[in-house]
Amino acid sequence: MSHSMSSPRNIQLVFETYQKARLVFVQTMADLATRATNVKCLESAGVLELLRPLLSDGCSTVRQCAVVAAARLAEHDEGVARQILNSGMLTIAIENLNKFNVYYKRSALYLIRAIAKHNEELASAIVRLGALEHIVSCLEDFDTQVKENAAWALGYIGKHSEHLAGLVVDAGTLPLLVLTFQEPEMSLKQIVAGALVDLAQHKPEAVVDAGAICHLVRGLENQDPKLKRSTLCALGAVAGARASLGEAVVAGGALPPALLHAGHDAAPVRRAAACLLRDIVKHSVDLAQLVVNTGGCGPLVELLSEGTGGARIPACMALGYIAGQSDQLAMAVIEAKAVVVLVEILQSNEVQDADLCAAAWTLGHIAKHSPQHSLAIAVANALPRLLQLYTNPKSSNEVKARASCALKQSLQCCLHRPALEPLLHAAPTCILKYVLAQYAKILPNDARARRLFVTTGALKRVQEIDTVPGTSLKEYINIINSCFPEEIVR
């Protein structure tokens, strides 16, 4: 080697070239890792083995880019996430979390959430590595993005199971999350609200005990639709868990803004509001009554007309829960003109099975209380359509089951003869017995109905029905026949 080659300047140049090459490598890997299609190729080229030593590199930019590259790869592929965990790369990132600058901290938290999001097994492994205390300490950091990534990671760990959510809560996260939710940065608020949704799915009482409800309700005053949606979802996750928690959400002032947001411009916000109302009314007659008294039926009925956006089904179910609680509440649903819209859903050929099921279920809950309630369903011409859905071989099993249940609930109270007659000629035996049971109640006391029963051919149809002695069907036919002179029956 010549003397000029071994001069201090040239030696330094070798090191600078090496550092530049490392930097170009990690930056290129981080860029390539943004596309999921590149992951398999990078993995088979041994990218993880090359990135591993660079996680603790002497150059801060190399370190940080190496962690970002690993995080992006882990985010796209569960297998890669598992390799990063098993190879000790995550352990290195966690150990270095509080050693280096704020950029490294952001990236390391990103890596944690990228691995945690996949499944409970990976999230549990992260907890076993002692990551929780590091993540929780990052919620108190000055940097907004560090706090965002910490909240995100906690939500991703806690969402998988009650056990993991319990560990996250026990680490003292909720008071800090509630505090962080009150900070002014919009993206931070959105992410914290999302983490509260994830934890409230499994630990709703803890969210209430941390004093989150009033702050979440206050968050609805914000104009950002994403934040509104996440906040309504968090309140819904709490309210849906138990009646006492539903009452806590209502007591925290969530009901008026929920009704207001049922008419919001953004479809995801309307859907989240409908879900919250559904999760409140399902528990008790008192909560359902409260929603009705606050003017809840109108906004819910309006949401039934929405073909897209996903608000129709939760709105439909909310009305079903309200109607199911008592005959007066069912009457309030009828008076809000819900029945007509529900039947329109049933009649439409464009709707999904889930919409048909929800509409049928709700109609059954409205009709089941009394002849007056059932009359509203019968007059809206719902019964022939329910029968059609039940007997149609193309209907799914779920649709058939819901249609059959709604038919039976409606028929058991129905004394409206014009609605019963078409079913007499079209219904299969399992539905027919409910039709005949109603005729057995009507005919003994109504001479005009008996006359019409003969002249329309209904009595003739009854004689054609195959029955087995001793069954309820045979019993109803005997009661009907006993209403007429023997020669007419013959």
Q: Could you give a short description of this structure?
A:
The chain is mainly alpha-helical and 490 residues long. It has helices at residues 8-32, 39-44, 47-51, 60-76, 78-86, 89-96, 102-116, 120-128, 131-138, 144-158, 162-170, 173-181, 186-200, 204-209, 212-219, 225-239, 243-251, 255-261, 267-281, 285-293, 297-303, 312-325, 327-335, 338-347, 353-367, 371-379, 382-391, 397-411, 417-426, 429-442, 447-455, 458-463, 472-481, 486-489.
Give an overview of the whole structure.
- The chain is mainly α.
- Helix content is 74%, strand content 0%.
- It contains 34 helices and no strands.
- The protein has helices at residues 8-32, 39-44, 47-51, 60-76, 78-86, 89-96, 102-116, 120-128, 131-138, 144-158, 162-170, 173-181, 186-200, 204-209, 212-219, 225-239, 243-251, 255-261, 267-281, 285-293, 297-303, 312-325, 327-335, 338-347, 353-367, 371-379, 382-391, 397-411, 417-426, 429-442, 447-455, 458-463, 472-481, 486-489.
- α13 packs parallel to α16 and α19 (267-281) runs parallel beside α22 (312-325).
- The longest helix is centred in the first third of the chain and has 25 residues, at 8-32.
- It is elongated, with a radius of gyration of 32 Å.
- The model has no long low-confidence stretch (mean pLDDT 91).
